Amino acid sequence: MRIALFGGTFDPPHRGHLGAAILAAQAFHLDKVLFAPVGVQPLKEGRSTTPFAHRLAMVRLTCAVDTRFEPSMIDSPRPGGAPNYTVDTLAALRQQFPSATLFCLVGADSFLSLPHWKEPHRLLALAEWIVISRPGSPLNDLTTLKLTPEELRRVHCIETMQDDVSATGLRRRLAAGEDTSGLLPPAVATYIRRHGLYRAASGSITEYPAEAAGER
User: How far apart are CA 190 and CA 192, in angstroms?
Assistant: First the structure.
């Protein structure tokens, strides 16, 4: 079995997330893509995000479009609000699927920050990496990561992603009541409207931090 972990805030899950997962599933013949909303990203501790239960619900709706996609709680909030580290998540997946070929699906901007993640060399030993290069986030040079030849062989790049949807910009558009047609799975758009997400009670914009790449 070939399984990819697709972690992130998913605040909210949008067309770009779906596009990346579809490209990866097709290119690498994946049996499963696990959409795993993260509880607490280490360098985003204390910052405001939509509650995990809402993000998980939106991920479930997103995954309904493709039988290869599954929502996962493997990166759910830790006891006491401890941060979620990708190395721990991949280790748990390896225990759960000992005979599977594991991949980790990430964007180029996040992957280029790999030296700041917890145990980066172990990350590359635990899984192969599918790196999506989006417009504005090219993956032209990996030399700054100082990877070994064996580690480089475990990094696979997809440079055909043309979608440049930004979760940060999308949240602002939702908060302002602007049209987001085509940017969200229809079921997710309905869920957001039904639950009044991305708006303060007063109707003013609820600010959320930008999707910064940090230690994972």
Answer: 5
Alpha carbon 13 to chain centroid distance?
Answer: 9
pLDDT tens digits, 176-214: 889 898 999 999 999 999 999 998 543 333 433 334 333
| Domain span at 107 | 2-165
Tell me the CATH number at 8: 3.40.50.620
pTM of this prediction? 0.88
Strand order in the sheet with 101-107: 69-71, 32-37, 2-8, 101-107, 128-132, 155-158
Instruction: Give how many domains the chain has, as a whole number.
Output: 1
C-alpha to C-alpha distances, 85 to 41, 117, 128, 190, nearest whole angstrom: 7, 8, 17, 31
